[in-house]
């Protein structure tokens, strides 16, 4: 087998430094199976951060569907074939009735690009609203629209006058703030807008569920300013929140455009944009085409992912196991004051580390130390949020109660070792 040092040498030579290695040290991963990853030396890792492999790494039904279709036909969507229409009909059936037209693409970035393009074409406006800390993709335009990037390392601050940023509605760090008022103010000051691009639960901003009513205010203000509400479900869609298939449903709001990615193909490059007939037709006479988006292999894989979610009751599982996980973490929080907040829905969870529960001084180093120790014990986690002090949990939805119990035990041990236990 190729040695890790050789791989690293080749990587240093041929891969941009802009693509860093995860988990604080190079992990030479050679195989994935459901909620686990396996290293070249045989070490098993419980993967608690990969929400792409939604129904499990290399889920046999998904692999089988892809392999079979790959040996039969892989072409483009200018032909008529059953997999495509079956797939878009099935996704459409899970969405509000009006969101009945789907575009299939290859990545979350590509889908968000199209969503913004549709919003601009439909409204005739150019300006966009986003939430602070948000990440929406790797293209030039989406980096300009992602405060996580332009305000983060290497970023040059907000340079684009057409981008308007709403503060994070963070009920832990900014408790009691009039979040709706902030949305109203930013949008009123923006003038005419093409849209508001927002995640239904904030991911890079720190694993933050939106406060109740937030999306409804966002929709109302956006519409008043002539824009469209675009919901980016790339991180949380496909039942991860447990109670619903889509994160926005929890807020009782119908978006104008919905963007799907990551888990849609369980690791196969796929994404989708769903919207109304009217908005979809705003591209006018200009042709739209993706060479590989929605190809028969992608549709077969997408259909298999939906089958597994249904057959294995993964939404109910996310709800039950997510509840169990959050409960266990809240018990740990009682013991260790360094855990300032435990939050989330279903299997989308954040643990925020603070040195002081009154000042909320972030404990980023401590969060990173725990992540490193957990990694060395065989559990993969990572930190996120603008202060890098939130441990994120968004595992393949097939993890078990035993995996959670092990994680809670190891977390307890790691926190104990740091001596961060309080007198109870
Ligand atoms: N939107 C969100 C919320 C994301 O988290 C990401 C990727 N992390 C994207 C869009 C972009 O998706 P992709 O990497 O597939 O282009």
String of helices and strands: HEEEHHEHEHHEHEEEHEEEHHHEEHEEEH
- C-alpha-based Rg, rounded: 21 Å
> Beta-strand level of the residues, as a percent range?
15-25%
| Largest sheet data | 7 strands, mixed
Distance between the termini: 51 Å
Instruction: Report the principal-axis shape.
Output: globular
Q: Can you list the ligands bound to this structure? A: 4'-deoxy-4'-aminopyridoxal-5'-phosphate
Number of strands: 17
- The structural class is alpha/beta
**Percent helix:** 25-40%
Please, what is the average pLDDT?
Answer: 97
Regarding quaternary structure, what we see is single chain
Low-confidence stretches: none
Task: Supply the number of helical segments.
Answer: 13
In the sheet with the most strands, the strands line up as 4-12-11-10-7-5-6
Describe the protein.
With 424 residues, the protein is α/β, with parallel strands linked by helices. It is 37% helix and 17% strand. The chain has helices at 4-14, 60-70, 82-94, 108-123, 140-144, 147-150, 179-190, 214-224, 277-280, 296-311, 314-335, 364-376, 401-417, and strands spanning 29-33, 36-39, 44-47, 101-105, 128-131, 163-166, 195-198, 201-202, 208-209, 228-232, 257-260, 271-275, 339-345, 348-353, 379-380, 382-384, 390-393. The strands form 4 sheets. A 7-stranded mixed β-sheet has the order 4-12-11-10-7-5-6, with helices on both faces. Strand 16 and strand 17 (390-393) form a beta hairpin. The longest helix has 22 residues, at 314-335. It is globular and about 65 Å long. The mean pLDDT is 97. Bound molecules: 4'-deoxy-4'-aminopyridoxal-5'-phosphate. Residues 107-109, 112, 135-138, 199, 203, 232, 234-235, 261 line the site of 4'-deoxy-4'-aminopyridoxal-5'-phosphate (PMP).
